[in-house]
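Worked example (supplementary).
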Amino acid sequence: MSLVKVSDLSVSFTTERGELRAVRNVSLSLNAGESLGIVGESGSGKTVMSRAIMGLLPRTATRTGSVEYDGQELVGKPTKELRELWGTGMSMIFQDPMTALNPVRRIGTQVEESLRVRLGMDKKAARSRAQELLELVRIPDAKQTLRKYPYQLSGGMRQRIMIAIAISCNPKMLFADEPTTALDVTVQAQVLNIIDELRQDLNMTMILVTHDLGVVAGHTDRIGVMYAGQLVELAPTTELFANMKMPYTEALLKSIPRLETPTGSRLPVIEGRMPDPTKDEPGCPFASRCPYATDKCRAEAPPFVEGTPGHFYRCWFPLGGAQ
Amino acid sequence: MAGSGRAHMRPDGADKILNVEDLTVEFKIARDKIVKAVSGISFDVLRGETLAIVGESGCGKSTTGKAILQLPRPTSGSVEFMGTELTKLKGNDLREIRPKMQMIFQDPISSLDPRLPVKDVVAEPLKVWNKGTAAEIDAQVNALLESVNLDPAVVRDRRAYEFSGGQCQRISIARSLALDPTLIICDEPVSALDVSVQAQILNLLQDMKDRYGLTLIFVSHDLAVVKTVSTRVMVMYLGKVCEVATPESLYEKPRHHYTSALVQAVPIPDPKHRVSRALLEGEPPSPLNPPSGCRFRTRCPAATDRCAAEEPQLQEVSPGHYVACHHPVA
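After joint prediction of all chains, the assembly is encoded as:
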């Protein structure tokens, strides 16, 4: 039973340089309880895509296509009605815990806000629930922390507060947009583990957006790779790593420095850059950077095909051949 | 966590570019509150070496890098750069030696003046030091931009905000090379970049190092990045040194419990890899009031009473591998 069904979702922004097409015809569906990773470079459209599903887009954006959540169509719904869903239905953990929290309000006030507004709790109930939430994300001294201001906490602690706020109204669907990018590796591991546990305990569906294949490998059921606004590969996590089809996915994986990389060795890089999102060029958008590109790739855009059940890709010459 | 140990220092005869002893940096934040950012560490850097300084936020790694440049001046200790004691230098003498030491900052976009055209960003150090006529400087700027793989004709007249993070970092590198430095301190130069761009910048730094015979200090929290670029790694925790070794030896067999936890926390892009649950809990204690003895003992799985009482000193555990721990990982 799918909780979210996205069909042909496109987002464009009107800019001075013309129509900027940030997300291009993305279709995917998510089952309840599933965890999907969305990976890609800066500018691939991964953040805009996740915000577009929730309806959190600026006024300059145009959204077309369909987002069905729990049987309701969200595209075209007025913001007022969408608001009813935010927090209780869908919720987001933002990337930068330094700027996402209000610097002049106490942590307690910020955690209680959604409890009081959304769930209609009174002050006392909200306060005790807020303390529970902070304990849930393993903040030591939860009671004292509620009295503090964001600047008094470290980045890891602030990110836990963001998680506590995101899950405060028991959402069914959690979006995590680069939740650990601003954190140290040890803290990153702690925060990812907390998200994992909460997701299982509260049976949440999750979309985890990141540029780090290392982060999604251990924490998701399926992975979608985005490039130039399109979904270019989508497969179960183990299948993707064992049998990747897109040359782009391979290049992304190879460019990651690893602990086993011999010292002094050169890292493989992806030469060139992503195509201009305001232009529509024929062919595969990765062709100019792809080591395997042929004339066909430059002339004709490949379709998104299902090679083996559940494994989709967008390439004329997939790695390991077509199946 | 000692750091007061000197076992890892190379003999005086070695070709040292930098020799730092008992470096202490403290910041007074209130009348009776002193943040001990760096507490008496010693290390040296040989010519042509890349020393990586690794640790979590707040361990003092960036402060150490800046203290070498006397930005700000360390509270105490000695910093000897190419035979000159920097902590004693004042005014013009310090200014004279600064071109030999350059820095590349973490955030490439905010560390460049958004209003200056790229050609002026790169030319600025040359102009300040009167390195030739306008035409000579211009030619030099073009050569520098080319050396970091930017097309001068395309980028010269554009401004920093028009570039991506990776391109801005290339411009920063070009600028840092302008005065023909001996030592470049790179403070998290790739942590703000995408993985694909990260690889390009790391390769570029490696090329520049070979081409200009540079010595690098590479400050980073990312162990995998450090592994590919460094020749020696120094792990710091709460203002002290825990472990010093070659990257191969350090990652293959970390001997300090802190290093071991850091290595285990690196996310591996392989779904078959099981994340170890024995992760480091909590966060480093406040540098306002660091623990007695070994500073890591409050989070260390192997801590004993001895760790609270006695500060461990750096000692050699295998050739070239030094650790400051009473109970090193077997």
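Two points are worth noting when inspecting this output. Residues 36 and 280 of chain B are 23 Å apart (CA to CA). The first strand of chain B starts at residue 16 and ends at 30.
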